[in-house]
């Protein structure tokens, strides 16, 4: 499959390796740090505005290769592409249960585990060696960072960032656009637009919107 990446930074390089491991080809990296379209080593580079033309030209699908959840959401909304224009990328060294469901534009990195009956939304990131256990629900625009664990039947709402090495115990819910800081352990439900840290995780900040 031919893939167009939106974004050309470190996260895009990781997703490129992910796609190559599955036999896909990255044919374009579009980022607004480029002012015009050009081709180098068989790959197109240029501003994000070129995406629609390249989809038509190359018959490619798209992944928004941006790590920040709020930025990824804004780009998806701006592009206004239908769901069938997006690819889902699962690294060959990830383990994804046949009964798990993954949304469009979502990526699962090397060593990650998505277990039975888990449901992952659209444009989410299950990063390297992260674990999403059985019967979990993970929303859209979520980032489960490297080494983080979401235990069975937990609910991770839209836009949540679970930082590296953090964990959410079974059945708990993390509200939309909240942040679980690195190494923290969520033992109780977390409200929306809240940042928690520590073991057990305690509230350190609250917001009125998705913006940090």
Give short descriptive properties of this protein.
UDP N-Acetylglucosamine Acyltransferase, domain 1, AcTrfase_PglD-like, transferase activity, Trans_hexapeptide_repeat, Rossmann fold, Acetyltransferase, single chain, 212 residues
What is this entry, summarized?
The chain is an alpha/beta fold and 212 residues long.
Q: Mean pLDDT, as a whole number?
A: 96
**Topology pattern, helix = H, strand = E:** EHEEEHEHEEEEEEEEEEEEEEEEEEE
β content, as a range?
Answer: 25-35%
Q: Biggest β-sheet, characterized?
A: 8 strands, mixed
Q: How large is the count of helical segments? A: 3
Protein name: Acetyltransferase
Keywords: Transferase
GO molecular function: transferase activity
Organism: Planococcus glaciei
Describe this structure in words.
This protein folds into 2 domains: 2-85, 3-Layer(aba) Sandwich (Rossmann fold); 89-199, UDP N-Acetylglucosamine Acyltransferase, domain 1 (3 Solenoid), CATH 2.160.10. It has 212 residues and is α/β, with parallel strands linked by helices. It has an 8-stranded mixed β-sheet, with helices on one face. Strands 7-10-13-16-19-22 form a 6-stranded parallel β-sheet, with no helix packed on it. A 5-stranded mixed β-sheet has the order 3-4-2-1-5, with helices on both faces. It is globular. The termini are far apart. The model has no long low-confidence stretch (mean pLDDT 96). The relative contact order is 0.11. The chain has helices spanning 10-21, 51-58, 69-79, and strands at residues 2-6, 25-30, 38-40, 43-46, 61-64, 89-90, 95-96, 101-102, 107-108, 113-114, 119-120, 125-126, 131-132, 137-138, 143-144, 149-150, 155-156, 161-162, 167-168, 173-174, 179-180, 185-186, 194-197, 202-206.
